[in-house]
Amino acid sequence: MVLSKFRVQTEESLKSDKISFFFFLFSVVSILLQSSLILTTSSSLPPLVPLFYSRPWGEAQLAPWTFLWILPGLSLAISLLNFSLAIFVFGKLRFLSRTLFIFAFIVAVGTLYGTVKIISLLT
After folding, report:
1. pLDDT-based confidence at 11, cuts 50/70/90?
2. Is there a domain that residue 6 lies in?
3. If you write DSSP's letter for every residue of 52-73 in order, what string do you get?
4. Does 5 fall in a domain?
5. What are the start-end ranges of the E strands in 4-122?
6. Has residue 10 been placed in a domain?
7. Predicted confidence (pLDDT) per residue in 43-70, tens digit
8. Element (H, E) at 118
């Protein structure tokens, strides 16, 4: 009963704040796009892909192609954490709530860009 009431309040507050809803929607779409991109190109990817660009050039940057799932996984984890925190503070601190939504949006855009860039370099 309490969870149902909380869910209804959350849906109403998200629908009333169009900016937060946009950031939430784009983050979810970004995660789905990353996952579908990895799934559709997995058969054409080489066994090792460049993923760790902060390491020195060469073998240290390479990882198995399955490690590409780190990017949408990271985006999903940060989005879930930020959205759940934002929902709890939504009625009280609207600025903090929007900031959490925007940060999740920025992470989603960054990981989507990284996924697209890595895959486009290899195919």
Report:
1. low
2. no
3. -TTSPSSGGGEEEGGGGGHHHH
4. no
5. 48-50, 62-64
6. no
7. 888 898 888 888 888 888 888 999 999 9
8. helix 94-122
Q: What is the mean pLDDT of residues 27-33?
A: 94
Percent of the chain with pLDDT over 90: 38
Q: Rounded to a whole number, what is the distance in angstroms from the first to the last CA of the chain?
A: 50
- Point out which residues pair with 63 in neighbouring strands: 49
How many whole angstroms separate alpha carbon 112 and alpha carbon 47? 21
The CA R_g of the chain, rounded to the nearest whole Å, is 17
Residue type, 33: L
Determine the structural domain holding residue 71 and report its residue range: 18-38+46-122
pLDDT at residue 1 is higher than 60:
no
Residue 82 burial (CB count, 10 A): 22
For residue 42, the SS3 value is coil
With respect to residue 116, please indicate whether it lies within any of the assigned structural domains.
Answer: yes
Give Cβ neighbours of residue 55 (< 8 Å, ≥ 6 apart).
Answer: 61
pTM for the structure as a whole: 0.80
Task: State how many domains the chain has.
Answer: 1
> What gap in Å lies between CA 2 and CA 20, rounded to an integer?
24
